[in-house]
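Issue 218. Parser rejects a valid record. Input:
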Amino acid sequence: MAFIDKDYAIRKLSELIGKDLRPLASKFGVTVFKDEKRHKGRNKGWAGHVLERHIGLGACNIQAPNGGHWELKMVSMKKLKSGIIKPKETMQITMINPEQVKNTPFENSHLLHKLKEMVICARLYNDINETKSILLSCGKFDLNDKDLYDQVKKDYELVQNALNTKGFKALTGAMGVYVQPRTKGAGHGSTSRAFYARPVFIQKILGI
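Output the parser choked on:
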């Protein structure tokens, strides 16, 4: 596992702010579409992989020099006709291990650990063919804001209570104000669940 300083990574990634990530995908050998000519088989995580290559990494989970871990997250933003830029979709934070969540207080949870050790970047989604994608921002997030912390804790404990009283199948994307539990991907019979940041929470994480 690679060791890299979080602040160094942010400085390095900030070099790309305002730049188009699409040509960098070719430079770093990152596949955007399996079939480039027909734009079929899109690699949804391509932009994040470009950032990883830029800082010399090949994996999202990075071990810091002090032994801690931090994670690089990329979120896609969309520009509305009004000119306002908003999150295009939710952001996966971490998978849900039912037994672990049931028996772990929020203060010791993987969810909190992930949110306190995050480097998050935002890119502008242009079109379905990914003709271009400008990096908008890059920074770290630590969930130190009390109001955000308290609400995320409530969201976690809502999931925890549902697991303890109703079971795993009771988890639904309708739960949670900032963090929701739902199937990983589009569903289609999937039995896995993950914690996702809702768009409103992503805006707060990005400070917009």
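Fixed in the parser; the record now loads. The chain is about 30% helix and 25% strand.
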